[in-house]
Design brief:
Elements: H1 49-54, H2 60-68, H3 73-79, H4 87-99, H5 107-121, H6 126-138, H7 156-165, H8 175-190, H9 244-257, H10 259-262, H11 267-276, H12 284-298, H13 309-323, H14 329-344, H15 351-364, H16 372-380, H17 387-408, E1 427-431, E2 437-441, H18 452-472, H19 487-501, H20 516-533, H21 538-541, H22 559-580, H23 592-602, H24 610-624, H25 630-644, H26 650-662, H27 692-697, H28 699-710
Antiparallel strand pairs: 1-2
Helix pairs in contact: 2-5, 3-4, 5-7, 9-12, 12-13, 12-14, 13-14, 14-15, 14-17, 15-17, 17-18, 18-19, 18-20, 19-20, 20-22, 22-23, 23-24, 24-25, 25-26, 25-28, 26-28
């Protein structure tokens, strides 16, 4: 050994702990003649200036120390005891909590650990949470050039921020969801030759759109939601010869499936009068409208019920013609359900008429669309027995009008000026000293309703301002929405939705046990976000430069990034909803998510799973056509959009169309009307050409044009890399 160095003595046995040795040195004592090994360089993250001056290393643990020091570690440790990956962090944190002083952390250095700590607090599966954090901090991205971001992680910054700060409405991928997604994705790869999900279909492949077979479908046990329905005498209310026990099942199916989302009448008061044959809170027109809508739903379970649909349609039309001039809560609720029945039955050119009628009647009755002073004066005239019924009908019909405005986006649509002034259902009415109605929270008695409808009332009240600004105030002739709406307004509404989402009750949090209507609420929530942000995306503006959201600290917080985050959430919701809830085949209230997902994937076919989602959305409409005739047309329109945008060849599009129509349930000569929007970007400037029926009728023209221009080949297709880990980003 060189004489310049002092000889080192062996480590005493009493102090031979792993922590007493410097990292990188060997635990085996060396002979006096050996040269001491140099300390190995350790791959760590960049240190801040303070750490450089003190010449200390930086680790993930040091970054977390300031935040762990302020936490009740005993309580956290018990909650995380089962997590293997969490134990080393907790043990180290407990030691630091007792023996280490709280270090000073530079503000820039603190941002990322604070975000990850919030991420840990809001995540139920701790093993998954730690694996996500470790992968995002430590693992380099393969194939990434220095200074560039890969395609799949371009929006990771904003998505991570939203998941950490607003986990109620932007939850991370949970274990049950991940299992469902990976199972479907692996099944899709096995069904594709050579595992190439971007390859064209061959003539020998099975039909991806199977025939509707209600007898083999997975359906829930149809028990009555209320025992009072056992006493139903349907003959008192209708002349349609349907058995009372079957009618009770139809009413029960509607109340359990769609009423928590629509709520146009008080279900308890309605059921009491329905079985007792009273007409205070029930009427023949309302019963006929429920049966018209409910029989369409039930035909997805039992196709024999379909024979009653035209009979209830005719009866409801006749009753509406004779009662439409009489303003009443029952007529208002029945008109909403009649409009929905027309929409599902492929007659939606009448729907706009019913939207206008509901808006006019609600304004005349002082329920919505009038100044608050007028509404309060009207509310004082309501008897205590009518207060709950009034709240349900006012908010239920108001919500429906806003939903239709967001869904149709057509010029000439009727919009209420103001939301209802009366309390949201689930609140009780009383009068304050000033005489104005106030509200106090009470629990909904209907177990199948939950808290979904009151929450939706608040959601649609926020979206009401969006529909007024975006669609009612749009100039004519139509221009791009971004030409008359400021990004500041869109960002304000986006922020308002996110902040309000943090106030959701525990029953509305997404989980494995969530009822179907909770998932539909989250679907509508993200559809609302997409509707707000779409006009400001690069694709909608026809620009290559993204805009900047100013209220987010993330540097990549653009409308495109925020739009992509909600698209990813919506993809997961669509798959989980359809796989976990059989009602996805006989309720159409969730199908707007399919339209938005389709528009998103056709706008970005670089997504490795775009073809899977395209087939999945068309398959979902294939399942829905067992209940609703309009699903036939919208399946055609989606294939037309795909062909028009050059994502598939004309030959493959014809093959898919042929397979989709093999199992159609309606005759090709049937006049199915569907005037709502399919191409959402085109709808901003030309709603007539963007409608479902317009795109459906133009399939052959588009296919011929593609064949003559480029021989039917698809120049826009790029080879898709198969990657199981792609699902981890959804």
């Amino acid at each position: 050994m060189s004489k310049r160095y002092r000889q080192l003595l062996p480590i005493p046995q009493s102090e031979s702990s792993s922590n007493s040795q410097p990292s990188g040195s060997s635990a085996t004592p060396r002979s006096p003649g050996e040269e001491p090994l140099k300390r190995q360089r350790i791959n760590t993250q960049l240190a801040c200036n303070s750490c450089r001056k003190r010449k200390i290393r930086v680790s993930l643990f040091h970054s977390f120390t300031p935040y762990l020091a302020s936490v009740d570690l005993s309580r956290l440790s018990s909650a995380m005891a089962k997590s293997r990956s969490a134990r080393p962090v907790i043990d180290a944190a407990r030691k630091s909590h007792v023996s280490m002083p709280r270090p000073r952390v530079h503000r820039r250095q603190a941002k990322k650990p604070n975000r990850y700590w919030n991420f840990l607090r809001g995540h139920a599966d701790l093993d998954t949470a730690f694996s996500i954090i470790q992968s995002r901090i430590a693992q380099p991205v393969r194939g990434q050039r220095r200074g560039t971001a890969p395609e799949q992680t371009r929006y990771l910054g904003l998505e991570s921020e939203l998941m950490a700060r607003h986990s109620l409405v932007f939850p991370t991928l949970q274990s049950p969801e991940s299992i469902i997604l990976k199972k479907l994705f692996s099944t899709s790869k096995k069904a594709t030759p050579n595992g190439d999900n971007d390859a064209q279909m061959s003539n020998n492949e099975p039909n991806p759109f199977p025939a509707h077979n209600p007898t083999h479908a997975q359906v829930p046990t149809l028990t009555l939601c209320d025992d009072r329905l056992k006493k139903l005498n349907i003959g008192f209310w209708t002349s349609v010869p349907i058995p009372s026990d079957l009618a009770a099942k139809v009413v029960s199916l509607y109340l359990e499936t769609d009423h928590p989302l629509l709520g146009p009448f008080d279900p308890d008061l309605f059921l009491a009068d329905l079985v007792e044959c009273r007409t205070n809170y029930c009427s023949g027109m309302l019963v006929s409208a429920i049966m018209y809508w409910g029989c369409q739903m039930y035909s997805g379970i039992d196709s024999a019920v379909g024979k009653y649909i035209p009979e209830f349609c005719e009866e409801t039309e006749k009753r509406w013609s004779s009662e439409k001039m009489t303003d009443s809560l029952l007529t208002l609720a029945a008109t909403e359900l009649l409009g929905l029945g027309y929409l599902g039955n492929g007659k939606d050119h009448y729907v706009l008429t019913y939207v206008s009628e509901v808006n006019s009647m609600g304004r005349r009755m002082g329920l919505f669309g009038v100044d608050s002073s007028v509404a309060i004066a009207k509310a004082k005239q309501v008897s205590p027995d009518m207060q709950s019924a009034t709240s349900y009908t006012a908010w239920g019909t108001f919500n429906w009008i806003v939903l239709m405005a967001l869904f149709y986006q057509q010029p000439g649509l009727s919009y209420p000026e103001y939301p209802p002034a009366m309390p949201i259902p689930g609140h009780t009415w009383h009068h304050s000293s000033e005489g104005s109605p106030q509200s106090a929270r009470q629990t909904l008695q209907e177990t199948y309703m939950g808290d979904t409808f009151p929450v939706l009332c608040r959601f649609w009240r926020i979206m009401h301002g969006v529909t007024l600004k975006y669609y009612r105030d749009q100039p004519h002739p139509r221009e791009s929405l971004s030409s008359h709406i400021t990004l500041a307004f869109a960002e304000y509404k986006y922020r308002e939705l996110i902040a309000w989402g943090e106030t959701l009750p525990p029953s509305m949090v997404r989980s494995e046990q969530s009822p179907h209507h909770v998932l539909v609420f989250h679907i509508w929530f993200h559809v609302g976000i997409l509707s707000i942000l779409r006009p400001f995306t690069v694709r909608a503006r026809g620009s290559h430069k993204p805009l900047r959201l100013k209220t987010f600290p993330c540097r990549r917080s653009s409308p495109d990034a925020a739009y992509r985050v909600s698209v990813n959430q919506l993809k997961r919701l669509v798959v989980v909803y359809r796989e976990k809830h059989p009602c996805s085949s006989y309720t159409m209230l969730w199908h707007t998510a399919l339209i938005h997902v389709t528009n998103a994937i056709l706008g970005d076919t670089r997504d490795p799973a775009w073809r899977f989602y395209l087939f999945y959305c068309v398959q979902s409409y294939s399942n829905l056509r067992g209940s609703f005739r309009f699903a036939e047309t919208i399946g055609r329109s989606i294939l037309s959009m795909t062909l028009q945008q050059g994502d598939i060849s004309a030959e493959e599009a014809r093959k898919l169309m042929e397979q989709f129509e093999e199992n159609r349930l309606s005759s090709p000569s049937d006049d199915i009307r569907a005037t709502f929007m399919a191409d959402l970007n085109l709808a901003m400037t030309d709603p007539e050409e963007a409608s479902v029926e317009s795109l459906s009728d133009k399939f052959e023209d588009i296919a011929l044009f593609r064949e003559f221009t480029n021989g039917g080949g698809s120049s826009a297709d790029e080879p898709m890399e198969s990657d199981d880990n792609a699902w981890d980003t959804f």
